[in-house]
Design goal:
With 426 residues, the protein is α/β, with parallel strands linked by helices. It has 18 helices and eight strands. Strands 1, 2, 3, 4, 5, 6, 7 and 8 form an eight-stranded mixed beta sheet that branches. Helix 6 crosses helix 7 and helix 8 packs across helix 17.
Amino acid sequence: MRKMIVLALLLVIGVFAVQAQDAVELRVTWYNDGNEGDVLRDLLDRFEAENPDIKVVVDTVPYADGILNALPIQVAAGEAPDMARITDFNAFKGYYLDLRPLVADAAYWDASFPEAVFQAMRTEEDTDQIYGFPNQFTVTGPYINRTLFEQAGIEVPSDSSDAVTWAEWTEAAAAVAEATGTPWAIAIDRSGHRVAGPAFSSGAVVFNEDGSITMDTPGMRAIMEAIVGWHANGLTNPEVWIGSGGNYVAAAPDFVNGQLVMYMAGSWQIGNFATNIGDAFDWEAVPNPTGPGGSTGMPGGTAFVAFAQTEHPAEVARVMDYLASVDALKEFTERTLFIPGHQGLGELDFQTDLPAAKTSLEVFAAEALKLSDQAYQLQYGGQAFAINNPIRDRLTQVIIGELSLDEAMARLQQDVDDAIAAAAGS
């Protein structure tokens, strides 16, 4: 009897060992704005339960250091993860895994996601490859702390006007900060993408009809002068742009902590604010300020992509199929409070009882309908980071006094020309 028990135990151990040995481990490089990493993990846990031969490890990294800076280097060095959440589609061209022959139903992918997003990942030689899917759509725009406006006894400008300029918002935010003793009146993330929407609203025309690009326009100068003025007048926290160490920095912590009246960011912060502000004070998104170029933010978002370096393409495709499905993406969207990148999710039941979150989602949905052609061209024309990064860097030099605005504009144009030429020659 003892021998039979021992034999049975050995058989059980052997089965488990074979199962463990047979399970394929896939790695995902991921970053968080809010709770989306937790939602992803819940979805993957369910996937693993139904697919015990696959284990998915999520490596969560900081956005600036991990996604923008480290990931392109890792991929180019042949050390790509199997999958990743990215924002710079152009940076990984030539390294993606073509999912079209691997997924269960490529026609579903074609019908469910915008072709412009697929195209943004393709090289000029590509035709119909599928490299990933947009797991969120974003729109840039500002938030306000309405509680501070109420405490100051100052009307929120957008409550009585559909066309409020950046100058009017700045004046109102500064008055609120002074009246309430709030440290900072207004801020914008250290990001060329974040600056671009206000620049286009201010009248900037970057993309010309003849295909050329012009960075030095009255609209671009106007918004740069405004941001420089925020710093010169002590209206914004200098740590965001000056103390950044050259990296992307968000001003979200100041807003979350009630130390900032108005914050230019975007729809991706709704989940963060719902979680970390809740109803501690009344916060909400407001329409993008208006100007000679209208009222536009910037489109954007993230994509979940697969890399060709994977040793397990079939298993990667199964994970991608699952996460791109209607049920999975619907849950991901509703729980993270994101605008969906999928075109067929139907009516969404966002998982929040916060009026601020629901109002902000409605505002950004309306802002998505106002996005300008210039904004779409910048985001999906393949030149976004070649333009956005120099805007960020040259504006920083003006803020800290290293360059005059005239000098910065000349160098900005050269930066963009050089970056585009380098990309064309690579």
